[in-house]
Design goal:
The structure holds two protein chains of two kinds.
Chain A: E1 7-18, E2 27-38, E3 42-46, H1 53-60, E4 68-73, E5 76-77, E6 86-89, H2 101-112, H3 116-129, H4 145-158, E7 163-167, H5 175-192, E8 195-200, H6 203-209, E9 212-216, E10 223-228, H7 243-270
Chain B: H1 4-33, H2 45-58, H3 62-91, H4 94-108, H5 116-123, H6 127-151, H7 155-163, H8 168-205, H9 211-220, H10 224-254
The chains are: A alpha/beta, B mainly alpha.
Chain lengths: 274, 255
Amino acid sequence: MATAREVAIRIKDVSHQFGEPGDMRFARALQQTSLDIMRGEMICLIGPSGCGKSTLLNAIGGLMRPTAGTVEVGGKPMRGPLPREIAFVFQESALFPWCTVIENVELGMVFQGVARGERADRARKSLEAVGLKEFMSHYPDQLSGGMRQRAALARALSLQTGILLMDEPFGALDEQTRMILGEDLSVLLARAAKTIVFVTHSLGEAVFLADRVAVFSARPGTVKAIIEVDEPHPRKPAFVTTDKFAQLRNKLYGLLHDEIRKAAELAVAAEPAP
Amino acid sequence: MIAPRQRRDALMSRGLQLGFLLALILLWYFATASGRINPVLLPNPLTVWHNLVQVLRSGEYWPDLQVTLSEIAVAFAISCVNGLLLGYLISRSQYLIAVFEPLLAGIYSIPMILFLPLFVLFFGLGSWSKIALGAVISFFPIALNTIAGFGYVDRILIRSARSMGASNAQLLRYVLLPAALPVVLTGLRIGFTVTVLAVFGSETIASFAGLGHRIAQLADAMETARMFAYIAFAVVIAAVLNALMAVVESRARRQ
């Protein structure tokens, strides 16, 4: 893609630990992580469980402050949530169960401070975009898991932020629903021209969606390698069947495999003696 | 939509319930009509009915009803304010929840009516001992449910609202309140039922006035038919109060 592009998010030497050394729950989640995320790119963070990818995402979104290091968004250091610039999609659809789908989308804009007259219109448009036009008056528990994530995505899109952070948004869905949502997401996001940071466990999802994939090492996590996926958006479903896809996926697998082993050994070692 | 079959089943079970009650009254009637049961111990239901009609016609129940209702109202109002306020404040900190929730639950499991003599010592035989007991007993379910309602709101909902820029006031109004409401309302309903029980119970044990007092007095005087009439009246009053509470609750739930 184009070379001299603007940096949207700059992560510099970010480390984070939970608790203090000596605490029972003490854990070093991130160590000296640095990463520049370009405006308009889709970057996937992938790595073993507990490597701190979600922690990093929360730090980018201003939902927590890292123990050390800085996160800059648009050149300014991060101090707290920036609802006008950054929207989230969480793993469990964080929809409010007492609101209908359209009320959920509108409530996001209420929090963000969008004028009343504009809300309904924007909510309707974003719900149409994700294919939930017929389900606007349904409550979240009347929808399937995939539809709930579509609604959560619609809410995030309606906020019209430049940056979208997605924390394993399809993690709880079955393989087929995941595939369809991934394809639709690629189409949607190609149109939206947003900067997207996407945390995932799925190798295929990472290669299918991302411009770049950042591979994290085992805990304490840091960026071990970055893989470029040079393929125009929106990605065609047939991309999955190409040799290019398979090669990239295998390369990722190789990079990840050692780290996952290491993480598993760490987890066993951390288990208390019986 | 309820399917016709389901509706028929619902009607059937309602009919059975009614039939069961009717059978009980009939059994009561025939047992007492034979004359083998001492009417002082168990009066005939028809005699009870005549007494009830008399009580209602004469309006003699009014002073006692007023006392009982105002005791219930004041006691419930006090426990609502205390329970909601303290419950909410405790729910704001995980530490306070960890300290107070087991403590309150533990105290709640003590049969508080045992302290009635103490309350009578403190507040006298009049209304205030009943109000105090009712307010103390019902404080616990209200406070505990308020803690549960506000303290265990799904963290992801709070994070999600924060990420979209919700202020503290917006978080309370759009997230915490609607999330906590069902649980808090349940606490209020339990608290109300418990208040009614405590007031009636303590009036029966030691008091100057009130429906419970009247019932105990009639039992002492061996006027069992009149006593049953008053019990029936008290049951209807309690049922009406609970029905009113249920209406208020379902209204609040719909919002």
